[in-house]
Structure formats: C-alpha cells, structure tokens
Amino acid sequence: PVCPCFPERKAVWDAVAGYIQQQLLLHKGIRIPTLGSFDVVHTETLVGSKTVILQRPVFHLARNLRGVQSPENEDDLAGGKKLESLQYAKVAMEASVSRRIVECCILGTTSLLYHCLEKGVSVAFLMRDVGVLLIEGSTAQMRFYLDFLEKVTGE
C-alpha cells in the first residue's frame, strides 16, 4: 500500500474535517469507516416555561475502536439512524491526492488510534475547525471547538 507523507496526511485530514463541517452545518450525519460517526442531535430542554429545541453535534466511535474501550462508551446513534459514508472521491479531490491515498491515510490513522486505545496511550487528534478527538487511557471523546458549536447551533 501507498503510505502518504505528512503533507498528504495533513491535506487528507483537513479535507475530511472540512467535509464533516459541511455535512453537520447541513444537519446531515456522516460516517467515517473505521473511525466513527458524526451527527447533529436535537434535544428539548425547558427554559422557564418554554420548551426550547437545542441542536448539538455528537461523535460516536466506530465499533472496531470501541472494542478496546470500557463499556460506558458503547452508545450508538439514536434510533439506529443510517448515515452517509464519507465520500472518498470528494476528499481526494479536495486534498489533491488519489482516492487510494485517502483510504490508506484513514486506515493508517485509525489503526494507530486503535493501538493507542489498546495500550492506554493518550492522544489528541486534531480535526481542523471541528475539534479534538481525545484518547485518554482507554476512553475516547470528541471535544468540539466553540466556533464550530456556534455555527452548528446557529448561535
């Protein structure tokens, strides 16, 4: 397999992050095979005597990565919602690389994340303009940037 160099990896993940942002701003979920799913959920909350609907982005780690985690992180998307898979061709075009390099880059990165989870190594995986996937010990969670949250929620 072709192993992309750092500038190509960065270009691929920047394009993936841009695609995630684009989909979530349209309130569409996206599934990145072997990494996880991003979606926007709607929750109702009571503010005074009014019910307000809040929208917030969520991330769910892929099953292959969840297998090495503790049980408290085993939640799935509400109602088994089907999400569109990442469009590798669009990412490749945006990153100016081949589709094969995109696939290799994503698989290589998720393989590394799997081994970090398995060994309990802490990692911060940055997704440009979206947030940081934090892996600490055997748990993983997505911390979205405030600017991104404000865009998604319309605040």
What's the helix count?
A: 5
Along the chain, the helix and strand elements come as HEEEHEHHEEEH
Alpha carbon gyration radius: 16 Å
The total of beta strands comes to 7
Mean pLDDT: 85
Oligomer: single chain
Gross morphology is globular
Instruction: Determine the fraction of residues in helical runs and give it as a percent range.
Output: 25-40%
Note the main sheet: 4 strands, mixed
> Any idea how many domains?
1
Structural class: alpha+beta
Strand ordering within the main sheet: 3-2-1-4
As a percent range, the share of strand residues is 25-35%
Q: Low-confidence stretches at least 5 residues in length (pLDDT < 50)?
A: 70-76
Query: Alpha-carbon distance between the termini?
Result: 44 Å
Helices, strands, pairings?
Layout (H helix, E strand, L loop, with lengths): L5 H20 L4 E3 L3 E12 L2 E12 L1 H4 L17 E2 L2 H8 L3 H21 L3 E5 L3 E6 L2 E6 L1 H8 L2
Parallel strand pairs: 1-4
Antiparallel strand pairs: 1-2, 2-3, 5-6, 6-7
Helix pairs in contact: 1-3, 1-4, 3-4
Structural descriptors:
four-stranded mixed beta sheet; HU-CCDC81; Coiled-coil domain-containing protein 81; alpha+beta; CCD81; globular; 155 residues
